[in-house]
Design a protein that fits this description.
This protein is about 30% helix and about 25% strand. The protein contains 16 helices and 28 strands. α10 packs across α11. The chain starts with a strand and ends in a 9-residue tail after the last helix.
């Protein structure tokens, strides 16, 4: 059994907003949030007022404890007030990727039976049809036809409702995750889960009021939600929000706002290590770059560290663990390539994926984790919950790791089938379910294939009914999914390999993913892929 080398921390029995903003009134004039696009500042005192007013406004509108509220927005300074205000009203956030299509957003709203949707006006073209499809009313940040503006709530004084919250059982967040396989599921995270993970993470993150944190990781993603937003606010740091990642603007923001901490995903580390734009910027304020959401190789971490003149470290987690399970502590030794030791109050086991028997010391196996940050389970899906949780409260991570004698872990492989594109998690089953609705596709399998820039890209193997234009198929998929989910490569094949039980044998096709096809089937359409590849790396969402 693995244990954390760090002392156990106290997990206070507080609701999430009470814990995150416990000292906000003491820091009333200190900037909590700064909008990188226009310099607008929200102080801690103002943020505390806004959270109360959002809670009061939603309660007066009719939102009841336990009901879900969709939040569909890029990173804006109003986001934390909405998120924490929802929890203070006793309701539950379901955060929606700002890149989601209208159909994807509607599906998530329906999956969690949302009461209403809060959306940024910039997403009106998708938010309005999503709300209509899900049958929910809509509040907007900024002007949106037919929507009540959140700003009206922020300017209207009001007392938040007196709601009794049991942190151990009441949900605060319902993000969607594909788990280790399959279609997205609602992850039930309680107030205690999130409070615990903040308390577990802060000793290693060592954030404080002198830190300026750049928020380019989306708050809709559990990494951005817990580490960037809630940990920073609990610590009294200043968060500089960016609605999207663009390298030039990212670098300019670090320079202008004297950012000290950058929480990013590996594609951004790659840009920091290699892009020529970095040479023209003063990034000397950076004290640390922290990478997560996908494995970061040792060589790339060291190259970026040398170029930036600050440590580049990483951590590890998953939505089902709120998310942080391990991290490399600030100010201590760094072992490039390692995800660090377990955070406090966390136990781990390394097991054989098939038998779940513990492996010998030093051997690789699937990581199981147990701690107060582990989810209650998946919403309305006991079968998936049972598959994810092992007797005794152990969460199956689906990742193969190896531990050194000091308990520092390194990810060596993924047992899970998710594709990690620039830090985004893509469920192959979701793309396969879409592909087989195309009239020319009889069957499909999607795998991840290695890519220098993105880490992995989705490749589709398809069995066709009749003639198929691969470029047209790529475009057809692109119209129906968020940009990061687009299939980048396609190859026709005579038959999808399956087990006797009918399960797709993705590993068989993954092994041949980029190899020349000896049977003469349609080759990979690399030119079409290059035309559709994003020009900038993006963080996970």
């Amino acid at each position: 059994m693995l244990t954390s080398p760090h002392p156990a921390v106290e997990i206070p029995a507080l609701a999430l907003a009470d814990f995150v903003l416990e000292h906000a009134r003491e820091w009333a004039d200190h900037p909590a949030l700064v909008d990188a696009t226009n310099g607008r500042v929200v102080s801690y005192g103002r943020l505390a007022d806004q959270v109360d007013r959002v809670a009061a406004g939603f309660a007066a509108w009719g939102v009841r404890p336990g009901e879900a509220v969709g939040v569909f927005s890029p990173n804006v300074v109003e986001y934390p007030a909405v998120f924490l205000g929802v929890t203070r009203a006793g309701a539950v956030n379901t955060t929606i990727n700002a890149l989601a299509t209208a159909d994807e957003a509607a599906q998530q709203l329906c999956r969690v039976r949302a009461r209403l949707l809060v959306a940024d006006a910039a997403l009106a073209d998708r938010a309005l049809p999503a709300a209509a499809q899900a049958g929910v009313e809509i509040f907007s940040v900024g002007a949106m036809p037919g929507a009540t503006r959140v700003e009206e709530l922020l300017e209207r004084p009001g007392q938040p409702p007196s709601v009794a919250i049991d942190p151990a059982t009441q949900l605060a967040s319902l993000p969607c995750s594909s788990g280790t396989t399959g279609l997205p599921k609602g992850v039930m995270l309680t107030h205690r889960n999130l409070v615990a993970n903040i308390a577990q993470s802060l000793p290693g993150l060592a954030l404080d009021a002198d830190d300026v944190v750049i928020a380019v990781l989306p708050f809709s993603h559990i990494y951005g939600q817990t580490v960037v937003m809630n940990c920073s606010l609990r610590a009294g740091a200043t968060i500089v929000t960016m609605p999207r990642f663009e390298l030039e603007a990212f670098l300019a923001t670090i320079e202008h706002d004297r950012v000290t901490r950058a929480f990013v995903a590996p594609p951004i580390v790659l840009a920091l290590a290699k892009n020529a734009l970095v040479d023209g910027c003063d990034l000397s304020s950076l004290a640390q770059v922290f990478s997560g959401a996908a494995p970061l190789g040792a060589e790339l971490a060291e190259e970026a560290s040398r170029r930036l003149g600050c440590p580049v470290v990483q951590g590890y987690g998953l939505t089902e663990a709120s998310p942080v399970l391990t991290l490399v502590p600030r100010g201590g030794p760094n072992r490039p390539g390692s995800i660090g030791p377990l955070v406090p109050n966390t136990e781990g086991r390394i097991v054989q994926p098939g038998t779940l028997e513990d492996v010998a010391p030093g051997q690789a196996g699937e990581l199981l984790a147990r701690g107060p940050q582990v989810m209650l389970g998946y919403l309305d899906d006991p079968q998936a919950t049972e598959a994810a949780m092992v007797q005794g409260g152990w969460l199956r991570t689906g990742d193969v790791v190896q531990a050194d004698p000091d308990g520092w872990l390194t990810v060596v492989d993924r047992a899970k089938e998710l594709i990690k594109y620039k830090g985004y998690a893509i469920a192959p089953a979701e793309l396969e379910a879409l592909l087989v609705t195309h009239p020319a596709v009889a069957d499909a399998c999607v795998v991840g294939v290695p890519d220098v820039e993105a880490g992995e890209i989705p490749k589709a193997f398809v069995v066709v009914r009749d003639e198929l234009d691969p470029d047209a198929l790529l475009a057809w998929v692109a119209e129906r999914v968020a940009p990061y989910k687009r299939v980048r490569l396609v190859e026709t094949i005579e038959e999808i390999p399956k087990s006797p039980s009918g399960k797709i044998l993705r590993r068989v096709l993954a092994e041949r993913g980029t190899a020349a096809d000896p049977n003469g089937n349609t080759p990979t359409h690399g030119e079409a892929v290059r035309e559709r590849r994003d020009s900038n790396p993006r963080p996970p969402a």
